[in-house]
Amino acid sequence: MVGVLFFLAVVAVIPFGVGPDLNLLARIGPAILWIGALLASLLGLDRLFQADREDGSLDLLVLSGHRHILAFTIFVKCVAHWVASVLPLVVAAPVLGLLMNVGPVGIGAATLTLLVGTPAIAFIGAVGAALAVVLPRGGLLVSVLILPLTIPVLIFGVSASYGAVADPDPFLPPFLILSALTLFFAVIGPFAAAVALRQSLD
Amino acid sequence: MSETTATSLKIGDLANPTRFLAFAGRLVPWLGGIAAVLLVAGLAMGFMAPEDYQQGSTVRIMYIHVPFAWIAMMCYSVMAISALGTLVWRHPLADVALKAAAPIGAVFTFLSLATGSIWGKPMWGTWWVWDARLTSVFVMFLMYLGIIALTRALDDPSRSARAAAVLTLVGAINLPIIKFSVDWWNTLHQPASVFRLDGPTIHPSLLWPLLVMALGFTLLFFAFHLMAMRNEIWRRRVIAMRRISARAAETA
């Protein structure tokens, strides 16, 4: 819930910064929604493995089985993290879109791209969270490490949302690439996080 | 056959830090000396090369800008191979190589961005454009900084080395995606401002100084890299010796 509040706060701050011009807000609205959701979904990431580490269950997870089982466990943890703390952001996005004066098509496109694209951020974030488990105060460093890696997701998410609104730009190609990125990181992220966790404990 | 066994023995020998130090000590002066000769020659050739008929004298920035950018990318490849060496082969010097290369790569990336924007001001009329190539190099610079932060975040060098290796490899997978996505993003939004360098159609009179400079900077990079690796090994030895003496003082 704190994530949704943060998302609301980020989006609410924008009109104070750029001025209350409704046309301008409608134009940059989908991008603001994406940036707000990206920042808000980074919030809980450093806690992804930290709680497991504190109560010792992370050691059991790492030691329990084969490498692939650990990667699969991380995959499930990412999905759970996404459902618990990122899905509320996607649900809140249409309401915030109304605040930004985005049209109905734009709101639908932004919500759909967020629904498809934010899992990729969670999977990339798992790598950062796994690296941060070793660090004593890793919270801010995780965000710094992850943000450059999420740039492709942001680019294709925003360009697909704009593609639905502005006529000459296509919607489907960037949307399909966004889906491909999510699938790609669904494989790469858990495996890299598994390697990082295994290395951190020996 | 005997030659291959000899070379493989040599690489195995370099895993020993003392042998590596001796090897680096012999190699660094040569690398540095040849690099200095090549850089002086390249600069001279660059100043004698004809001016570009449109860009005038500012085209000479190319002779340092392009090698910086090439070496920035080469350094990331060196780091990615070192990361593989840490994770897969557990080569004892691979993490030293990774840690030593990161700041050098960051400096070369920064220099390529800085010289590029100095070149961009008279040519494009602006210091910075969110052009595809500039943006992807900028993202690479950010990733260098993240890796540097991660390698220095922990006291235990072997742990931070493996964390940095994982991050470097994930970044290496991601860099082509970033490059390609930024290209796409740029063609969508501002197709008119895609600036291109001269490309492969460059005239030989301009190409030769560029190649000499690039070779010189490459040798300079490896000289710096070996020196930084040597410093890192010495630093670890000093830390280890301090620990041993502290322990000896404790038991005594």
Total of DSSP H or I helical runs spanning 4+ residues of chain A: 9
- What Rg of chain B do the Cα atoms give? 21 Å
The description of the largest β-sheet of chain B is: none
Can you give the helix content of chain B as a percent range?
A: over 70%
**Largest interface, Cβ cutoff 8 Å:** A-B, 27 and 29 residues
Radius of gyration of chain A: 18 Å
Sequence stretches where pLDDT stays below 50 over 5 or more residues of chain A: none
- Give the overall silhouette of chain A: elongated
- Tell me the total number of β-strands of chain A: 0
- For the terminal residues of chain B, how far apart are their CA atoms? 55 Å
Tell me, rounded to a whole number, the average pLDDT of chain B.
79
SSE layout:
The complex is a heterodimer of chains A (202) and B (252).
Chain A: H1 2-18, H2 22-42, H3 50-54, H4 57-64, H5 67-99, H6 104-132, H7 139-149, H8 151-165, H9 172-201
Helix pairs in contact in A: 1-2, 1-5, 2-5, 2-6, 2-8, 5-6, 5-9, 6-7, 6-8, 6-9, 8-9
Chain B: H1 2-14, H2 17-48, H3 62-89, H4 94-124, H5 132-151, H6 157-189, H7 204-251
Give a summary of the structure in a few sentences.
The complex is a heterodimer of chains A (202) and B (252). Chain A is mostly helical and 202 residues long. Helix content of chain A is 84%, strand content 0%.
